[in-house]
């Protein structure tokens, strides 16, 4: 214990208890022993806290790595599922487009067939009128 501290302690004892203690008093030896024990205890506690801090940092790093790995797995699974759903919807949309295209082509072909039939009727009617006109012209 340094002299300034001893002087401060002796002054405090004198003030509070009205007792003057000499520097050679055994109480100061006990205080020095207590101080040495306390410093040793503090050193032990600091080492223990240091070990605990290192251990906690290691555990924290492991948890962070595990959480990152889990997040990567979950995100990867979500992305894979999203691609699968999008692929299914793409295939469904292509089938619907194909069905709609076939329906439209069938409708156009039906209209074309109807138009062809109309042209055929017109042509047949025109030929019939020409023939009638030809026969009427021969008769008269």
What's the structural blueprint in terms of helices and strands?
Blueprint: H1 3-17, H2 26-139
Number of helices: 2
Order of helices and strands: HH
How far apart the termini lie comes to 156 Å
Q: Major sheet: size, sense and barrel closure?
A: none
Principal-axes shape call: rod-shaped
Q: Tell me the total number of β-strands.
A: 0
Q: Strand portion, in percent? A: under 5%
- Total tally of structural domains: 1
Overall residue-averaged pLDDT value: 92
Structural class category: mainly alpha
Low-confidence stretches: none
Helical amount: over 70%
Walkthrough of the structure:
The structure is a single chain. The protein has 140 residues and is mainly alpha-helical. It is built from two helices and no strands. The protein has helices spanning 3-17, 26-139.
Give the structure's gist in a few sentences:
Helices cover 92% and strands 0% of the residues.
What labels would you give this structure?
rod-shaped, mainly alpha, 140 residues, 2 helices
